[in-house]
């Protein structure tokens, strides 16, 4: 368990990726294009990653998401294993990037701020990432992965496994575990269903 009071930037070169390749079935529309304070969610998350210190920012999207290729200011990456969830997006980005670490941020976490990623980055080191944990479960979609995790991720995908919880449990030695307190819990609230009228526009 790590307790970080005065985090400092990660002294290693790290990339960031916005995971935006989900099908948004429960939402009924493209989550990445919902707006928060006039800013599309995917753009907001790219900005958060840059503010946190990412040297490069990727957007993980499906090939048919034409808006991603047309509008993304960062680099676009497509899953090499189709319909395998966030694990496939993480593996594809790690394979495409040359950075030592990859900060992962799901597109549907509209309350997440750069401060959390900076806190995680302070716990990272060579070959070691950082992930939050709450009530015994990892929060894998706002975490930092070392590139050394790529082999384990690809092997899991080859076996047909998609669980990030299982991967993180098996590879826990490669991560600093940062306990998520009550003050941080709201940052992990996600959008899986249509927000109430006007909510998408008002969220901070």
UniProtKB/TrEMBL annotation:
State the name under which the record lists this protein: Probable molybdenum cofactor guanylyltransferase
Any Pfam family the entry gives: NTP_transf_3
Q: Name one GO biological process term.
A: Mo-molybdopterin cofactor biosynthetic process
Q: Which reaction does it catalyse?
A: Mo-molybdopterin + GTP + H(+) = Mo-molybdopterin guanine dinucleotide + diphosphate
Upper taxonomic lineage: Bacteria, Pseudomonadati, Verrucomicrobiota, Opitutia, Opitutales
Residue sites binding GTP per the record:
19-21, 31, 79, 108
Task: Tell me its cofactors.
Answer: Mg(2+)
Q: What biological function has been recorded for the protein in this entry?
A: Transfers a GMP moiety from GTP to Mo-molybdopterin (Mo-MPT) cofactor (Moco or molybdenum cofactor) to form Mo-molybdopterin guanine dinucleotide (Mo-MGD) cofactor.
- Which molecular-function annotations from GO does this UniProt entry contain? GTP binding; metal ion binding; molybdenum cofactor guanylyltransferase activity
- Listed binding positions for Mg(2+) are 108
Quote the gene name from the UniProt entry. mobA
Q: What is known of its domains?
A: The N-terminal domain determines nucleotide recognition and specific binding, while the C-terminal domain determines the specific binding to the target protein.
MobA-like NTP transferase domain span: 16-169
What is the similarity comment for this entry?
A: Belongs to the MobA family.
Give the GO cellular component terms, alphabetically. Answer: cytoplasm
Its EC number(s): 2.7.7.77
Q: Which UniProt keywords apply?
A: Cytoplasm, GTP-binding, Magnesium, Metal-binding, Molybdenum cofactor biosynthesis, Nucleotide-binding, Nucleotidyltransferase, Transferase
Task: Please name the CDD domains in this protein's record.
Answer: MobA
Organism field = Horticoccus luteus
**InterPro entries per UniProt:** MobA-like_NTP_Trfase, Molybde_CF_guanTrfase, Nucleotide-diphossugar_trans
């Amino acid at each position: 368990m790590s307790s970080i009071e005065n985090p400092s930037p990660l002294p290693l070169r790290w990339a960031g990726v916005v995971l935006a390749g989900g099908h948004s079935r429960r939402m009924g529309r493209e989550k990445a294009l919902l707006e928060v304070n006039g800013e599309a969610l995917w753009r907001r998350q790219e900005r958060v990653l840059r503010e946190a210190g990412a040297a490069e920012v990727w957007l993980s999207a499906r090939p048919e998401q034409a808006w991603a290729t047309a509008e993304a200011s960062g680099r676009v990456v497509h899953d090499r294993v189709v319909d395998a969830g966030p694990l496939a997006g993480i593996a594809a980005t790690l394979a495409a990037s040359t950075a030592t670490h990859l900060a992962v941020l799901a597109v549907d976490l509209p309350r997440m701020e750069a401060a959390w990623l900076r806190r995680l980055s302070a716990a990272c080191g060579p070959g070691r990432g950082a992930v939050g944990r709450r009530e015994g479960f990892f929060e894998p979609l706002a975490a930092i992965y070392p590139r050394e995790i790529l082999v384990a991720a690809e092997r899991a995908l080859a076996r047909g496994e998609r669980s990030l919880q299982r991967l993180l449990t098996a590879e826990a030695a490669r991560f600093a575990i940062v306990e998520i307190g009550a003050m941080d819990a709201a940052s992990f609230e996600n959008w899986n269903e249509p927000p109430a009228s006007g909510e998408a526009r008002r969220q901070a």
